Protein backbone atom coordinates (compact mmCIF):
# COMPACT_ATOMS: atom_id res chain seq x y z
CA UNK A 1 0.00 0.00 0.00
CA UNK A 2 1.38 3.39 -0.93
CA UNK A 3 0.76 7.08 -0.50
CA UNK A 4 2.02 9.98 -2.58
CA UNK A 5 5.23 10.31 -0.57
CA UNK A 6 6.22 6.64 -0.38
CA UNK A 7 5.27 6.21 -4.04
CA UNK A 8 7.58 9.02 -5.11
CA UNK A 9 10.43 7.90 -2.89
CA UNK A 10 10.37 4.38 -4.20
CA UNK A 11 10.23 5.57 -7.83
CA UNK A 12 13.24 7.83 -7.34
CA UNK A 13 15.16 5.38 -5.19
CA UNK A 14 14.93 2.65 -7.83
CA UNK A 15 16.94 4.85 -10.20
CA UNK A 16 19.05 6.49 -7.49
CA UNK A 17 17.90 9.99 -8.31
CA UNK A 18 17.29 13.02 -6.14
CA UNK A 19 13.74 14.35 -6.24
CA UNK A 20 13.50 16.52 -9.34
CA UNK A 21 11.17 19.35 -10.28
CA UNK A 22 8.34 16.96 -11.23
CA UNK A 23 8.59 15.22 -7.88
CA UNK A 24 8.67 18.50 -5.99
CA UNK A 25 5.66 19.74 -7.95
CA UNK A 26 3.59 16.71 -7.11
CA UNK A 27 4.63 16.95 -3.45
CA UNK A 28 3.52 20.59 -3.43
CA UNK A 29 0.14 19.66 -4.89
CA UNK A 30 -0.24 16.86 -2.34
CA UNK A 31 0.66 18.94 0.70
CA UNK A 32 -1.25 21.93 -0.66
CA UNK A 33 -4.46 19.91 -0.64
CA UNK A 34 -3.52 18.10 2.59
CA UNK A 35 -5.82 20.04 4.85
CA UNK A 36 -8.77 19.48 2.53
CA UNK A 37 -8.00 15.77 2.27
CA UNK A 38 -8.10 15.44 6.03
CA UNK A 39 -11.30 17.49 6.21
CA UNK A 40 -12.89 15.28 3.56
CA UNK A 41 -11.91 12.11 5.43
CA UNK A 42 -13.34 13.52 8.68
CA UNK A 43 -16.56 14.45 6.93
CA UNK A 44 -16.87 10.97 5.42
CA UNK A 45 -16.25 9.26 8.77
CA UNK A 46 -18.91 11.34 10.48
CA UNK A 47 -21.48 10.97 7.70
CA UNK A 48 -20.80 7.59 6.12
CA UNK A 49 -24.20 6.04 6.68
CA UNK A 50 -26.12 9.02 5.35
CA UNK A 51 -23.82 9.23 2.31
CA UNK A 52 -24.43 5.54 1.60
CA UNK A 53 -28.18 5.93 2.09
CA UNK A 54 -28.39 8.93 -0.21
CA UNK A 55 -26.37 7.11 -2.85
CA UNK A 56 -28.59 4.02 -2.65
CA UNK A 57 -31.76 6.08 -2.88
CA UNK A 58 -30.52 7.92 -5.97
CA UNK A 59 -29.35 4.67 -7.58
CA UNK A 60 -32.72 2.95 -7.12
CA UNK A 61 -34.51 5.99 -8.39
CA UNK A 62 -32.38 5.90 -11.50
CA UNK A 63 -32.38 2.12 -12.00
CA UNK A 64 -35.64 1.00 -10.32
CA UNK A 65 -35.62 -2.45 -11.92
CA UNK A 66 -32.78 -3.44 -9.56
CA UNK A 67 -35.35 -3.68 -6.77
CA UNK A 68 -37.93 -5.62 -8.73
CA UNK A 69 -38.12 -9.43 -8.90
CA UNK A 70 -35.21 -10.56 -11.03
CA UNK A 71 -33.23 -7.42 -10.18
CA UNK A 72 -29.91 -7.83 -8.41
CA UNK A 73 -31.02 -5.88 -5.32
CA UNK A 74 -34.27 -7.81 -5.00
CA UNK A 75 -34.63 -9.42 -1.53
CA UNK A 76 -33.45 -7.76 1.66
CA UNK A 77 -30.28 -9.81 1.68
CA UNK A 78 -29.14 -8.56 -1.70
CA UNK A 79 -30.30 -5.00 -1.02
CA UNK A 80 -28.20 -5.04 2.16
CA UNK A 81 -25.23 -6.53 0.26
CA UNK A 82 -25.42 -3.70 -2.26
CA UNK A 83 -25.44 -0.99 0.42
CA UNK A 84 -22.60 -2.77 2.19
CA UNK A 85 -20.58 -2.71 -1.04
CA UNK A 86 -21.26 1.02 -1.32
CA UNK A 87 -19.97 1.42 2.21
CA UNK A 88 -16.78 -0.44 1.23
CA UNK A 89 -16.29 1.89 -1.73
CA UNK A 90 -16.74 4.93 0.48
CA UNK A 91 -14.48 3.77 3.28
CA UNK A 92 -11.62 2.69 1.02
CA UNK A 93 -11.97 5.88 -1.03
CA UNK A 94 -11.54 7.88 2.18
CA UNK A 95 -8.25 6.02 2.77
CA UNK A 96 -7.15 6.73 -0.80
CA UNK A 97 -8.04 10.41 -0.39
CA UNK A 98 -5.80 10.73 2.63
CA UNK A 99 -3.00 8.75 0.94
CA UNK A 100 -3.30 10.72 -2.28
CA UNK A 101 -2.82 7.38 -4.01
CA UNK A 102 -5.17 4.67 -5.29
CA UNK A 103 -2.98 1.69 -4.42
CA UNK A 104 -5.19 0.76 -1.50
CA UNK A 105 -8.17 0.46 -3.85
CA UNK A 106 -6.32 -1.78 -6.25
CA UNK A 107 -5.03 -3.99 -3.46
CA UNK A 108 -8.01 -4.22 -1.13
CA UNK A 109 -11.08 -3.55 -3.23
CA UNK A 110 -10.59 -4.20 -6.93
CA UNK A 111 -8.56 -7.36 -6.70
CA UNK A 112 -10.87 -10.11 -8.01
CA UNK A 113 -13.96 -7.92 -7.74
CA UNK A 114 -15.02 -8.09 -11.35
CA UNK A 115 -14.82 -11.89 -11.30
CA UNK A 116 -16.91 -11.99 -8.10
CA UNK A 117 -19.50 -9.68 -9.59
CA UNK A 118 -19.63 -11.68 -12.81
CA UNK A 119 -20.10 -14.95 -11.02
CA UNK A 120 -22.91 -13.53 -8.85
CA UNK A 121 -24.41 -11.60 -11.74
CA UNK A 122 -24.01 -8.31 -9.92
CA UNK A 123 -24.36 -5.79 -12.76
CA UNK A 124 -21.30 -3.62 -13.23
CA UNK A 125 -23.12 -0.82 -15.09
CA UNK A 126 -25.36 0.21 -12.17
CA UNK A 127 -22.44 -0.23 -9.77
CA UNK A 128 -20.45 2.26 -11.81
CA UNK A 129 -23.44 4.62 -11.78
CA UNK A 130 -23.69 4.27 -7.99
CA UNK A 131 -20.02 5.08 -7.45
CA UNK A 132 -20.34 8.17 -9.62
CA UNK A 133 -23.48 9.24 -7.71
CA UNK A 134 -21.57 8.77 -4.46
CA UNK A 135 -18.78 10.99 -5.75
CA UNK A 136 -21.23 13.73 -6.72
CA UNK A 137 -23.15 13.56 -3.44
CA UNK A 138 -19.90 13.76 -1.49
CA UNK A 139 -18.50 16.64 -3.52
CA UNK A 140 -21.65 18.64 -3.06
CA UNK A 141 -21.51 18.12 0.70
CA UNK A 142 -17.84 19.04 0.85
CA UNK A 143 -18.50 22.23 -1.07
CA UNK A 144 -21.06 23.24 1.53
CA UNK A 145 -18.41 22.42 4.15
CA UNK A 146 -16.24 25.14 2.65
CA UNK A 147 -13.87 23.10 0.49
CA UNK A 148 -13.53 25.24 -2.64
CA UNK A 149 -11.73 22.87 -4.94
CA UNK A 150 -13.08 19.34 -4.56
CA UNK A 151 -11.44 17.99 -7.71
CA UNK A 152 -9.11 15.76 -5.67
CA UNK A 153 -12.21 13.84 -4.58
CA UNK A 154 -12.73 12.58 -8.13
CA UNK A 155 -9.56 10.53 -8.18
CA UNK A 156 -10.45 7.44 -6.09
CA UNK A 157 -14.04 7.22 -7.33
CA UNK A 158 -12.99 7.56 -10.96
CA UNK A 159 -10.27 5.00 -10.37
CA UNK A 160 -12.84 2.53 -9.03
CA UNK A 161 -15.24 2.97 -11.94
CA UNK A 162 -12.48 2.91 -14.55
CA UNK A 163 -11.02 -0.29 -13.16
CA UNK A 164 -14.37 -1.95 -12.63
CA UNK A 165 -15.16 -1.38 -16.27
CA UNK A 166 -17.02 1.22 -18.19
CA UNK A 167 -20.07 -0.85 -18.97
CA UNK A 168 -23.10 1.17 -19.92
CA UNK A 169 -26.52 0.18 -18.63
C1 LIG B 1 -13.62 -4.54 0.78
C2 LIG B 1 -13.66 -5.13 -0.55
C3 LIG B 1 -14.88 -5.97 -0.84
C4 LIG B 1 -15.82 -5.74 -1.84
C5 LIG B 1 -15.85 -4.59 -2.78
C6 LIG B 1 -16.76 -6.82 -1.79
C7 LIG B 1 -17.82 -6.98 -2.67
C8 LIG B 1 -18.72 -8.09 -2.76
N1 LIG B 1 -20.02 -7.92 -3.09
C9 LIG B 1 -20.65 -9.13 -3.07
C10 LIG B 1 -22.00 -9.40 -3.30
C11 LIG B 1 -23.01 -8.49 -3.73
N2 LIG B 1 -22.84 -7.23 -4.19
C12 LIG B 1 -24.06 -6.69 -4.54
C13 LIG B 1 -24.14 -5.34 -5.08
C14 LIG B 1 -25.07 -4.72 -5.89
N3 LIG B 1 -26.22 -5.25 -6.40
C15 LIG B 1 -26.92 -4.32 -7.09
O1 LIG B 1 -28.04 -4.50 -7.56
C16 LIG B 1 -26.17 -3.05 -7.19
C17 LIG B 1 -25.87 -2.70 -8.63
C18 LIG B 1 -24.92 -3.33 -6.37
C19 LIG B 1 -24.73 -2.28 -5.25
C20 LIG B 1 -24.33 -0.94 -5.80
C21 LIG B 1 -25.05 -7.66 -4.27
C22 LIG B 1 -26.55 -7.56 -4.44
C23 LIG B 1 -24.39 -8.80 -3.76
C24 LIG B 1 -25.00 -10.13 -3.36
C25 LIG B 1 -25.17 -10.99 -4.60
C26 LIG B 1 -25.70 -12.35 -4.30
O2 LIG B 1 -25.23 -12.98 -3.33
O3 LIG B 1 -26.59 -12.78 -5.03
C27 LIG B 1 -19.67 -10.13 -2.74
C28 LIG B 1 -19.95 -11.62 -2.62
C29 LIG B 1 -19.92 -12.10 -1.19
C30 LIG B 1 -20.92 -11.39 -0.32
O4 LIG B 1 -22.12 -11.37 -0.64
O5 LIG B 1 -20.49 -10.83 0.68
C31 LIG B 1 -18.47 -9.48 -2.56
C32 LIG B 1 -17.15 -10.16 -2.27
N4 LIG B 1 -16.41 -7.66 -0.77
C33 LIG B 1 -15.27 -7.18 -0.18
O6 LIG B 1 -14.67 -7.69 0.80
Automatic annotation (TrEMBL):
<keyword id="KW-0605">Phycobilisome</keyword>
<feature type="binding site">
    <location>
        <position position="72"/>
    </location>
    <ligand>
        <name>(2R,3E)-phycocyanobilin 2</name>
    </ligand>
</feature>
<keyword id="KW-0488">Methylation</keyword>
<keyword id="KW-0813">Transport</keyword>
<dbReference type="InterPro" id="IPR012128">
    <property type="entry name" value="Phycobilisome_asu/bsu"/>
</dbReference>
<keyword id="KW-0089">Bile pigment</keyword>
<feature type="binding site" description="covalent">
    <location>
        <position position="82"/>
    </location>
    <ligand>
        <name>(2R,3E)-phycocyanobilin 2</name>
    </ligand>
</feature>
<dbReference type="GO" id="GO:0015979">
    <property type="term" value="P:photosynthesis"/>
</dbReference>
<dbReference type="Pfam" id="PF00502">
    <property type="entry name" value="Phycobilisome"/>
</dbReference>
<feature type="binding site">
    <location>
        <position position="77"/>
    </location>
    <ligand>
        <name>(2R,3E)-phycocyanobilin 2</name>
    </ligand>
</feature>
<dbReference type="InterPro" id="IPR006245">
    <property type="entry name" value="Allophycocyanin_b"/>
</dbReference>
<keyword id="KW-0472">Membrane</keyword>
<keyword id="KW-0157">Chromophore</keyword>
<comment type="similarity">
    <text>Belongs to the phycobiliprotein family.</text>
</comment>
<dbReference type="InterPro" id="IPR009050">
    <property type="entry name" value="Globin-like_sf"/>
</dbReference>
<dbReference type="GO" id="GO:0031676">
    <property type="term" value="C:plasma membrane-derived thylakoid membrane"/>
</dbReference>
<keyword id="KW-0249">Electron transport</keyword>
<feature type="modified residue" description="N4-methylasparagine">
    <location>
        <position position="72"/>
    </location>
</feature>
<dbReference type="InterPro" id="IPR038719">
    <property type="entry name" value="Phycobilisome_asu/bsu_sf"/>
</dbReference>
<keyword id="KW-0793">Thylakoid</keyword>
<dbReference type="GO" id="GO:0030089">
    <property type="term" value="C:phycobilisome"/>
</dbReference>
<keyword id="KW-0602">Photosynthesis</keyword>
<keyword id="KW-0042">Antenna complex</keyword>
<feature type="binding site">
    <location>
        <position position="35"/>
    </location>
    <ligand>
        <name>(2R,3E)-phycocyanobilin 1</name>
    </ligand>
</feature>
<protein>
    <submittedName>
        <fullName>Allophycocyanin subunit beta</fullName>
    </submittedName>
</protein>
